[in-house]
């Protein structure tokens, strides 16, 4: 684990592996990384907005739970973006296949399930109020 | 169009600007929440993280070329810092 983190910071280590790929590929990898960071920032923004702007919920601490889940998910997306960038860069330099990842599918399922749970909560609340 | 050498770099520059802009919005949300909660130090931290990311990002995209991962790691850490600021404010 610590070795992985040290490798992220060691700029020369990545550059000494294999051969330098076409700069367009490296820049594309960087843009993909930035897109993931924006995804993470959007989740963090959602968490901050939920904490501030949602009305108090019928279920105790549901608002705080939503906020904390979104904040943690956003941070995880950002950390994973670094790891994926490094593995892609390494694969390009070594002429290997790009790393496959289940993370986008996992993230999609988590966000989808979270949305469905919230829809269910809103529907239940509507019928209780009526 | 891809043969034009400056275009991939310009796209990367624009991606950096979008990202820093998004981080600015997160900084404002965090700073607002901290201000409402009466925590001036956290307001300062939210703004300082964004200023640092802005300066580092600007330096990276000022001249064309491919660079190492250090700034990318710091950008991810800045995002994680907002997770930390958010958790601090929610659990406070």
TrEMBL record, chain A:
Recorded hits in InterPro entries, A to Z, give:
DUF202 (IPR003807), IM_YidH-like (IPR052053)
Q: Which UniProt keywords apply?
A: Cell membrane, Membrane, Transmembrane, Transmembrane helix
Bilayer topology reads: Multi-pass membrane protein
Region forming the signal peptide: none
Q: Where does the source fall among the domains of life?
A: Bacteria
Membrane-spanning ranges:
33-54, 66-82, 103-127
Q: Which residues form a coiled coil?
A: none
Q: Where does the UniProt annotation locate this protein?
A: Cell membrane
Q: Where is the DUF202 domain?
A: 24-91
Q: What is its main location?
A: membrane
Q: What is this protein called?
A: Membrane protein
UniProtKB/TrEMBL annotation, chain B:
Every copy of the DUF202 domain together lies at 10-62
Question: Which of UniProt's keywords are assigned here?
Answer: Membrane, Transmembrane, Transmembrane helix
InterPro entries the record matches: DUF202
Where does it live in the cell?
Endomembrane system
| Membrane-traversing stretches | 41-59, 71-91
What's the protein's topology in the membrane?
Multi-pass membrane protein
Q: Pfam families, from UniProt?
A: DUF202 (PF02656)
Q: What is this protein called?
A: DUF202 domain-containing protein
